Amino acid sequence: MMGWNVSRSRILVIAACVMGIALSGFYLMRQTASDPILLLPDPDSRDVHPGRELIVRFPKRVPDDVILKLQAHDGDLVDLDIRQDESDRIIIARPVEPLGWDESYEFCWKSEAGFLNSWRSERRGSCSQFRTMSKRSRAGSAEAPILVIEGADRPFSRYYAEILKAEGLNASAHVVADDFGSDDLSRRSVVILDTTHVPSTTWMALQGWVQKGGLLVLMRPGAELRQEWGLARAGEKSLTAAMMLPSPDTEISRGFNAEPLQVHGPIDSVPSNSPKNSDVLAHLARLDGTTLPLSALSVVPHGRGHVADFAFDLSRSIVLSRQGNPAWINEDRDGSKPVRANDLFYPDFLPLRYAEVPMADELQRLLVNLIIERAPIPLPRFWYLPRKLRAALIMTGDDHATVDGTRDMMFRLDELSAPGCRVDRWECLRASSYLTLPTKFHRQTALEFVEKGFELGVHVDTGCAERSKPAAFLKRISTEFQSFRSSYPELPPQRTHRLHCIVWQGWVDVPREERKSGIRLDLNYYLWPPDWIQGRQIFMNGSGFPMPYADLDGNALDVAQVATHLVNENLVPHHEGVSQLLDGALGPNQYFGAFATHFDYTDDYDQVLAEIALDRGVPLISADQMLQWLDGRNMSKFSSITFEAGNLEFTKHVPPGVEGAWALLPRQFKGLTLSRIECMGDRVEHVIQAIKGLDMAFFPATSGDCTARYLLASSNAKGPQRNGIAASFVETLE
Question: Looking at the domain assignment, is residue 92 inside a domain?
Answer without folding.
Answer: yes
